[in-house]
Amino acid sequence: MANGLAFTPIRELSSLIREGAVSPVELTEMCLARLDEFGPAYNSLVTLTSERALETARRVASELAAGRNPGPLAGIPFGAKDLLATSGGIPTSWGAAPFSGQQFDQDATVVTRLERAGAPLAAKVAMIELAGGMGYNQPNASFTGPPRNPWNPERWTGGSSSGSGAAVSAGLVPFAIGSETWGSILSPSNNCGLSGLRPTYGRVSRYGAMALCWTLDKLGPLCLTADDCGIVLEAIAGPDSNDPTTYPQPFTYDPNYDPGRKFRLGVLKEATEGAQDAVKVNFEAALAALADYADVEEVEFPDLPYVQVTRTILMVESASAFEDFIAEGGPAGLTAPEDHYGPYARTAILASDYIKALRLRGVVAREVDSVMSGYDAIAAPTSLTTATPIDEQFRRTLTGPGDVIGAVGNGCGLPSVSVPSGFDEDGMPTGIQFMSRAYDENVCLAIGRGYQAITDWHTRHPTDLV
Question: For 356, how many CA atoms within 13 A lie in the half-sphere containing its CB?
Fold first, then answer.
């Protein structure tokens, strides 16, 4: 199987498989070989799951030979962030040395649903230790090593779904599942030139996924296109009795969604404050490119402590999720030096401050929804910077009011899709995100697809890996 298929979107691969031009087994073998060859170089691979992947691929091949159409993901290999439980003796490390040999008897619901759809699990991919919940501030925060960016191995991929970003960007798998508590799907999508979808909170079951923050955690796909994200979301979304926070209605992806008018986009007044020059230029160019497709209007959210509210909830819930680990001195075994002491500061936050943050989140959700009700989505740069050096403390590079769009999106549990929007002077990708109201994934995906229909940034890939 030629490596030329390495950067082929899901819909096209699916057509090739159904037509018999590509064998599910050969495609899976290609991905396994690329993971084995390139995965370690980018610190993106934790465990190659060859036997399990080939078993699924052979099942799909048999179904196709019998004349059945098993669906759009049948035979499409994927990578799973290593916080998703996998049975059969496959470790689930949570990206942390103290848990590197950890095993579970059950599979995460997301893994079960993807395999049921015929997608072979090719690998468990790397992540920042404990999904960044211990307060890391630089890329060397995983026992598998600092995540390296396929566009430039001396830059990082973004966290905490770092291996997911590297694996898809390097063409090792057509898609990967990541998780986001605050930025961990959108950040690697931005840094690696990918399309990534953070679904609405509760849209996707988190059963079998490591809990970091019960009221913030979300699972979603990192792919080559916005269309791919929609295909994957339909397979993994829906209610799950094992996760009572899931939304009770199933999700059906509509690749032809059209509001019957131009889309209405809001842009926050301070959207590019503190951003790198290339990020500003590419964001403005992206909005200009959308002129025939969307009306753009500057908007403002009410003056509320968005970042402080979401940050307080994150810090308290992460400390609670790992209460026993912290009490037993477990952080001393983590890789990043700042993770040795960071968790203890979080345990000192007052319960009254946490309750206040929860109450304020209700106000934030109401006020933000009132603003967003007049728009199909809020557009913003996915990140204010491109990928930073692998040895640099990344948070020190940010200036301005803080990540308001990230705080609002994650604090309120809103869906957002990030798509590539260009490159900086060093050849590193930038991204633009479209954030919609709760459960409006079809809306933000449609805007992402529309942008990708008139641009070609998503078709560009690291040249030495094509």
Answer: 11
Q: Which of 180, 243, 231, 209 is nearest to 413 (CA)?
A: 180
The answer to whether 269 is a known catalytic residue is no
Q: Looking at 160, 162, 383, 418, which residue is catalytic?
A: 160
Q: Which residue in the list 23, 179, 184, 436 is annotated as catalytic?
A: 184
Largest CA distance in the chain: 62
Contact 162, 147 (CB under 8 A): yes
Sequence-ordered list of residues with C-beta below 8 angstroms from that of 223, at least 6 positions apart, any chain: 9, 10, 168, 174, 175, 194, 195, 196, 197, 229, 232
Closest C-alpha among 419, 360, 423, 384 to residue 221: 419
Mean pLDDT per 10-residue section of the chain, whose length is 466 residues? 81 96 97 97 98 98 93 98 98 98 98 98 98 94 95 95 98 98 97 98 98 98 98 98 96 97 96 96 98 96 96 97 96 96 92 97 98 98 96 61 91 98 98 98 98 98 80
User: Which amino acid type is present at position 134?
Assistant: M
What single-letter DSSP state applies at residue 332? G
Q: Is 189 a catalytic residue?
A: no
What is the rounded distance in angstroms from the CA atom of residue 344 to the CA atom of residue 342?
6
Structure tokens at 65: 């030979």
CATH number at residue 152: 3.90.1300.10
Q: How far is CA 66 from CA 18, 69, 120, 331, in A?
A: 12, 9, 19, 53
Q: How far apart are the first and last CA of the chain?
A: 14
Residue 93 annotated to the active site: no
* Range(s) of the domain holding residue 167: 3-465
Number of domains present in the structure of the chain? 1
Q: Which two tokens stand for residue 390?
A: 């692998």
The closest alpha carbon to 120, from 240, 35, 3, belongs to 35
Distance in angstroms (rounded) separating the CA atoms of residues 344 and 173:
38
CB 407 within 8 A of CB 313: no
